[in-house]
Amino acid sequence: MGKGHADKIALVTGGASGIGQAYARRLAEDGVHIAIADMRPGEETAELVKAAKRQALAVTCDVSQPEDVERLKREVEGRFGRIDILVNNAGIFPIQPFETMSFADWRRVLSTNLDAMFLVTKAFLPGMKERQWGRIVNIASNTLGLTVTGLVHYVASKGGVVGFTRALATEMGPFGVTVNAIAPGLTRSPGTTANDRPGAAERFAFVANLQSIKRTELPPDLVGAMSFLTSDDAAFITGQTFYVDGGLVRA
Description:
Number of helices: 7
Distance between the termini: 33 Å
Strand order of the largest sheet: 3-2-1-4-5-6-7
CATH superfamily: NAD(P)-binding Rossmann-like Domain
Shape: globular
CATH architecture: 3-Layer(aba) Sandwich
Helix content: 40-55%
């Protein structure tokens, strides 16, 4: 069990599968009760949480929509009363050249990856501040430190995540609430291996060869950083972005 995790309550957005599911499972193993918010049903993750002998709540919603976030807040607080740990993991990354990108394409990515982070944090931060304890972990991306194509909207949104993290950490430091970010590399998950991603195998091999650790990143590679940043051991760490990408981004 993680230090200071026992009987804390966490909300993981985008927690129905992949990386979000891995975060939820690890936090449950650390002793945390878990609420899952996702556009897809989160019952599979909820069962993994229950297998770790923790309580679980799965809410199907779109966290980029204010009315859905309001409903999420009512359901989560109705069940658990509070949120101590917020994992802003929900995100999308469609690959598309900038010149073919419409404003609707741009807004869809920014809304999911950044607006949702604002809405969910806005909903649950006041309780953390009032209780003088909270852990917020936002999921950024190592693409900020790379030269990649076809992801202008995605990289822009993740740049916003890093800025949001730093600025909010400054405001929340006096109130016992830390705000940090994890920047994964290219991780093999349902989202990155979907049928609409041609050349995925070649892309994984190419990226792995550039890393210091020359294998493909998997969701379990990311959970240790999450466990640490949400623990009492990380109480004096805030405003930071932790690259967990096998040593691809080194600067």
